[in-house]
Amino acid sequence: MLDFINEIVHEDGKYGREGYADQVSAREVLENAAAGLARARELNIPVIHVVVGFSEGYPEWPSESPVFSGARADERLLLGSWGTRLHDRVANIRSEPVVVKHRISPFYGTALEVLLRSLAVKTLLLAGVATDMVVLAAAKDGHDRGFQVQVLEDATAADSDDMHNAAIRVIRRSASISTVSEALGRGRQK
């Protein structure tokens, strides 16, 4: 569960207002992700949540990054704020770890790989926003670390259809693409 934070997926989030929330809504990403999350819990599949954020004062902030350049100026992605909390529809339960990252990839500078190995995870089922950022990075980095990778396409979105579709085309080269119901069965009932 990648970057399902209010700042990105909620309509009142700073990134949400820049197109992400509209795409999340149009693609029914939160509904599909919530159904996948519920099904994974039912099947006792380990669930790990990843959030992007920076500490007070932004000491981890990459000042030269075009992706994060505006974060400090308008206090985006401040850890402990409403913006970096998981959206209510897909919030973690007590037993589900939350990994904090300070870059695009959830593997960079985090204990994610150690956590996955300790849980004996072989296959990554990825859901998240944005498809062209964290999902793409997780798919590539997961592949390079020897995991099987499956992206749950109906539980992902970018800030536009074009970016989402381009990212899925790239991801398809090293990972499989499916839906929540294809991967986990009994998806969301419409």
UniProtKB/TrEMBL annotation:
<protein>
    <recommendedName>
        <fullName>Isochorismatase-like domain-containing protein</fullName>
    </recommendedName>
</protein>
<dbReference type="InterPro" id="IPR036380">
    <property type="entry name" value="Isochorismatase-like_sf"/>
</dbReference>
<dbReference type="GO" id="GO:0016787">
    <property type="term" value="F:hydrolase activity"/>
</dbReference>
<keyword id="KW-0378">Hydrolase</keyword>
<dbReference type="InterPro" id="IPR000868">
    <property type="entry name" value="Isochorismatase-like_dom"/>
</dbReference>
<dbReference type="Pfam" id="PF00857">
    <property type="entry name" value="Isochorismatase"/>
</dbReference>
<feature type="domain" description="Isochorismatase-like">
    <location>
        <begin position="2"/>
        <end position="179"/>
    </location>
</feature>
<dbReference type="InterPro" id="IPR050272">
    <property type="entry name" value="Isochorismatase-like_hydrls"/>
</dbReference>
